Amino acid sequence: MAPLRYYTDILLPFILLLISGVVFLCRRNGLPINWPFLGMTPEILLNIHHIHNFATNFLKLSNGTFLLKGPKFANIDMLFTSDPANIHYILSKNFPNYPKGPDFRRIFDILGNGIFNSDHELWELHRKTTTMSLFKHPNFHTILETTIKNKINKGLLPVLDHYHVTDLQEIFQRFTFDAICVLLLDYDPESLSVDLPFVPCEKAFTDAEEALLLRHFLPEKVWKLQKRFGLGKEKKLSEAWKAFDEFIYKCLSQKEKEDEESAGLLMSLKSGFSGQIGTSCDSKHFLRDVILNLMLAGRDTTSTTLSWFFYLLAQNPNVENKIRKEIQNKTGGRNWKSLTIKDFEGLIYLHGGLCEALRLYPPVALEHKAPTKADVLPTGHVVDKETRIILSFYSMGRMEGLWGDDCMVFKPERWFSKGVNGIGIKHEPSYKFPAFHAGPRTCLGKEMGMVQMKMVAAAIVCNYRVELVEGHMVCPSDSIILQMKYGLKVRVVPITTINQSG
Question: What average pLDDT does range 166-189 have in this prediction?
């Protein structure tokens, strides 16, 4: 026993010293520690509450691409990249080799056969039909402009006049939810009204998106077990699924009961997708998937961008003043309501400010990809069909090599270009600025989203000054959509009050 104790006394300190040395070296270079058997899982769990900044830090230290090792038994290694060459290659150059794939569809099962979950022929059907039925509908721009202006006048402005201190993120979420429901379902749930009613479907989006992010980092068997027994965030996801179904099916059934013919966008969608069933073998269920995917895009990406935009404006009142002056110059003393969709194209400072918000806080912070066959990325990393690739769009906007040493500065002028006709809008390639995705899957609603954001921003900037509530913490949430974890608590001060006191 004595010799055994002797060796134990020698080996134990040596092992502890070795572990300490490994931890020290890894901590010194800032990269996650790859533990035996566990991989980097402890680091992931410790940093899951700020996963986007965690990823940005290790990507900066590894030239933009890093393999995050999972447990040996779980097969959840993830290759993170923010390298524009890799982004361009995966989303454009070798697009056919990087479909959404079965892993993506299992994680995002709630989206069914919608456009975000689709590949190949079904995806092409979605792109073509959605484009023709919605964005090329002869009355689309008129319906869009009318819907947004009505919601601003009857919902947004009355609420902001009533609540001088409010959560602006919640206001924007209610606004975009109502707007997309009017556009897609020809129904206004009026969640944005002075009494701020609770609408289960509207709140369900946030719960669903938090659960979907967690699925990326948990072994599939774990989250499926949670789903089966209704545990943790999977319970909220199941409740959100139920809320979506009840709301959408109720709206569709109500429209079917109405006798009069409608020439609106819902009828156009129903006609365009008539007879299509996807893999559900049910045309009504397929239409539910189509609408839910479009609702997700219409509610959350726009509301999230507006939230971060006004957060940045509140920290940069000089930019807010320049945007207000630009709008006043454009209207020539007329009310901001006289601005048309065409007029908004000429508001360069407003456009630059929104692009900066999209660069620093892209609403879709990451994208999950998996190759169908083995490949070599431009950075030299070898991938195969078992490789999970995470494209970190959030990290891209924070890379000095892409945007300069002032990349963390909110600078609308970054988007100005000087030409013979004066200052115009600078366009960056989508693989450097993928806020609206890139390649064949570039967002169909890009123009619609920018128009909506400009109209809402102009309405608020021309009527109020937005100030952050002192002491309120603002940080990204743990979600697939980059919302604010604690909302955006602001004080809304009418411009008339500022002018009178000034």
Answer: 96
In what helix (H) or strand (E) does residue 124 lie, and over which residues does it extend? helix 120-130
CA 372 to chain centre: 26
- Band of the pLDDT at 21, cuts 50, 70, 90? very low
Q: Are 424 and 417 in contact (CB under 8 A)?
A: yes
* The pLDDT of residue 17: 46
179 vs 189: CA distance, rounded Å: 9
Q: Is the pLDDT of residue 126 over 70?
A: yes
Question: Tell me, what DSSP letter sits at residue 482?
Answer: -
Structure tokens at 84: 């524009």
Amino acid at 140: F
Q: Point out which residues pair with 78 in neighbouring strands.
A: 68, 388
Residue the block writes with tokens 């230290």:
61
C-alpha 456/C-alpha 448 separation (Å) is 12
Find the helix or strand (DSSP H, E) in which 42 lies: helix 41-47
Q: Could you tell me if 199 and 177 are in contact, meaning their C-beta atoms sit under 8 angstroms apart?
A: yes
AA letter at 385:
K
Q: What DSSP designation does 32 have?
A: P
Alpha carbon dihedral 299, 304, 310, 314, in 10-degree steps, equals 150
With 50 as the cut, is the pLDDT of residue 24 above it? no
Residues 324-341 have a mean pLDDT of 84
User: Is 97 within 8 Å of 371 (Cβ atoms)?
Assistant: yes
pLDDT above 70 as % of the chain: 91
